[in-house]
Every structure is written in C-alpha cells, then in structure tokens.
Hints:
The structure is a single chain. By secondary structure, this protein is α+β, with helices and mostly antiparallel strands. The longest helix is centred in the first third of the chain and has 12 residues. It has a single domain, classed as Glutaredoxin (3-Layer(aba) Sandwich). It is globular and about 40 Å long. A 4-stranded mixed sheet has the order 2-1-3-4.
Amino acid sequence: MNIQIFGTAKSFDTKKAERWFKERRIPYQMVDLRRFGLSGREFDSVLRAVGGVENLVDWSGKDPELDLLRYLGDERQKEDKVFEHQTLIRQPIVRNGKQATVGYAPETWKLWENEK
C-alpha cells in the first residue's frame, strides 16, 4: 500500500484519517492541501476514482465559490473551478495508487488493508 492523505491541519476528518492509519501502523504520506494542493494529474486521478466533481466537492461549505459552482452547467467548467479553488474539496482525500476516497471512509480503507 502506498497511502497519501491530502488535507489540512484544521480538518477534523483529516485528523481522524491520520489516526486510523497510525493505529494500524500503515505508513502514509501527509500532504497539506492548502500549502501544496493537488497537481493536475493527481486531481484528474482522484476525480476519476471518486466518480466526478459532484462527489469531490464539499457542498456544505460556506465558500461563495460554491454558489457559482452550483450554477455552472458544463462539467469541465466545474472541474476547472474546483481545481482553481481546492479548498472546495471535501477532506481528506486518501489515495492508494489509482484508488481514492474523499471524506472519512474507513470501510474502504479496510478493504485496501485486506488486499495487501
């Protein structure tokens, strides 16, 4: 397993994800989403793994960009907007190769753990 966790220090779910992997002694790499963000390839890979931009965005947030995002009709425009404003992404993003989850998803991570 090659685990990467993308999130921020203030995100409660990111902290829970880190704790989940630490408790199982699964090594992971933590990437600060605010400081480094996702590269274009990483973003596209995560987007495909989670099933599109609708599943990637934290729709419960208070960012004004969310209002604009709701009314964009073109999927590609939505993807570009989320890539520009990665703070709109639900956290944490946990990647294991080409597989990825968004949000706290220990049931999926357990499957990854059993595959190794």
